[in-house]
């Protein structure tokens, strides 16, 4: 099994065609881990699923890093405040796109790539598709240009798996309480964002898993675990079904192509 972030990604290639030639390249260095991303609209349940997956993987002995965009570096924290605070007022669409991409570039350099190079499983709450959907389709900038910008910011690093939690507006509204600057952008904006997420998944093909967000958290987690088990080369059980001792067991070796078998039966 070659993690897709180490190879040219067919889904991203087709997206690159559609988006006017965004070149998807291998990242620098021999990354060995797995890169799993959760995408979807506000209130889709991404953070809930990131946490469930992380717990399940750790329970199986995998070495997992959970992270998010924007805001998981010092610089990103400053940017997160700027883009989400209602006090920021009017930010031009291009300035917003550059801010989110600055967060992304720092996140890749400081957090994601080093962890992948250590062989860890990186699970990120949002990544490039959020930028394309929100700043491209949502803000009505050129989707092609925003995709190219995000590809540049990330050196074309493509996730091994993107889980899209597709949330309808009614479900999203029920799950959001105090709305931040992006969440307050209006129904039309969020409709464009949703449509674009679905379009990216449709074009990206095999490296996407699209799950309706109105399923229960447990139902969604089961679908995700089934898919991640295929990537990791062994069954990953839902949290609570095994007791393997957590992240301190390491786990980069379990991601090698030859690592097979279930978590229950696997070596520790
Ligand atoms: N499958 C689900 N069914 C019902 N409620 C859920 C489900 N998943 C999450 N929730 C609830 O919906 C709310 C939003 O969930 P969560 O924070 O995981 O979403 P999110 O996609 O990360 O949101 P945001 O993008 O706005 O940060 C929380 O109150 C959470 O408990
Ligand atoms: C990465 C990224 C995010 N956004 C938006 C999406 C959300 O409205 C917020 C992040 O809030 P969350 O509670 O952490 O989901 O920012 C965006 O517009 N562009 C992006 O690239």
UniProtKB/TrEMBL annotation:
InterPro entries with a match to the protein in the record: P-loop_NTPase (IPR027417), Thymidylate_kin-like_dom (IPR039430), Thymidylate_kin_CS (IPR018095), Thymidylate_kinase (IPR018094)
Pfam family, one: Thymidylate_kin
Transmembrane segments: none
Cellular compartments per GO CC: cytosol
Binding site for ATP: 40-47
GO terms under biological process: dTDP biosynthetic process; dTTP biosynthetic process; dUDP biosynthetic process
Source taxon at top rank: Bacteria
Region (Disordered): 1-27, 237-268
Catalytic activity: dTMP + ATP = dTDP + ADP
Enzyme Commission number: 2.7.4.9
Keywords of this entry: ATP-binding, Kinase, Nucleotide biosynthesis, Nucleotide-binding, Transferase
Gene Ontology molecular function, alphabetical: ATP binding; dTMP kinase activity
Thymidylate kinase-like domain residues: 38-223
Compositional bias ranges of the Basic and acidic residues kind: 16-26, 245-257
Keyword Translocase: no
Function: Phosphorylation of dTMP to form dTDP in both de novo and salvage pathways of dTTP synthesis.
HAMAP family the UniProt entry points to: Thymidylate_kinase
NCBIfam families attached to this UniProt entry: DTMP_kinase (TIGR00041)
Family (UniProt): Belongs to the thymidylate kinase family.
Protein name: Thymidylate kinase
């Amino acid at each position: 099994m070659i993690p897709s972030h180490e190879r040219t990604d067919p889904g991203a290639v087709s997206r690159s065609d559609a988006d006017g030639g965004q070149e998807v390249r291998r990242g620098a260095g021999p990354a060995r881990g797995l890169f799993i991303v959760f995408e979807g609209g506000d209130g889709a349940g991404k953070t809930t699923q990131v946490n469930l997956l992380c717990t399940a993987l750790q329970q199986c002995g995998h070495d997992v890093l959970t992270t998010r965009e924007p805001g998981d570096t010092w610089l990103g924290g400053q940017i997160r405040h700027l883009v989400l605070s209602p006090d920021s007022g009017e930010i031009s669409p291009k300035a917003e796109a550059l801010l989110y991409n600055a967060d992304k570039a720092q996140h890749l350099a400081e957090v994601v790539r080093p962890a992948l190079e250590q062989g860890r499983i990186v699970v990120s709450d949002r990544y490039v598709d959020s930028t394309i959907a929100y700043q491209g389709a949502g803000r009505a900038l050129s989707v092609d240009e925003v995709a190219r910008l995000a590809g540049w910011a990330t050196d074309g690093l493509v996730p091994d798996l993107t889980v899209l939690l597709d949330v309808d507006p009614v479900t999203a509204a029920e799950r959001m309480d105090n709305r931040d600057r992006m969440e307050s952008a209006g129904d039309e904006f969020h409709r464009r964002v949703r449509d674009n997420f679905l379009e990216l998944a449709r074009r990206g093909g095999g490296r996407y898993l699209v799950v309706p967000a109105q399923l229960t958290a447990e139902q969604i987690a089961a679908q995700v675990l089934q898919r991640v088990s295929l990537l990791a080369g062994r069954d990953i059980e839902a949290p609570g079904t095994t007791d393997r001792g957590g992240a301190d067991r390491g786990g980069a070796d379990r991601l090698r192509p030859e690592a097979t078998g279930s978590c229950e039966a696997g070596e520790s």
